[in-house]
Structure formats: C-alpha cells, structure tokens
Specification:
Layout lengths: L2 H19 L6 H42 L8
Length: 77
C-alpha cells in the first residue's frame, strides 16, 4: 500500500468517525472538549486495564492451581 492511498484511507476513517459521532456539526471549541474528554477516558480505561487485569488473571490462575493440586489427607479415613 503506497503512502497516498494510506493517507486517503486514514482521512476516510476520520470522516467516518466524524459522521458516527456527529462531531462534524460541532464548533471547534466543542470538538476540542469532546476529543479531550474521549481521549482522557480512553487513557484512563487503558491504564486501569493495564494495572488491574493482570492482577485478576494472576489471582484466577492461583485459585485454579490451588483447586487442581489440592489433595485430601487419606491417612485418617
């Protein structure tokens, strides 16, 4: 894919984004607030996922490992 077609494709994606979000109807200061809010939410969600998802996965693996390797004491029975 050459540079010009990639540039056109990215511009097309941007136009689609503006159509879907109706941001093409906004004034420049409204767009700035809208994009700032959306980007900040995306960053916060990504950071939260980066911090908490590995902890939860690790805890789940430890729990399932404990379930799989738990042996009953058969000496007293």
């Amino acid at each position: 894919m050459d540079f010009k077609s990639m540039k056109n494709y990215l511009y097309w994606l941007y136009c689609q984004f503006e159509l879907i979000t109706c941001s093409y109807l906004m004034e420049p200061w409204e767009k700035l607030l809208f994009y700032t809010f959306n980007i900040s939410m995306l960053v916060m969600i990504s950071y939260t996922a980066y911090i908490f998802i590995p902890v939860h996965i690790s805890t789940a693996f430890q729990f399932f490992f404990w379930l799989g390797w738990y042996h009953h004491n058969d000496i007293g029975n």
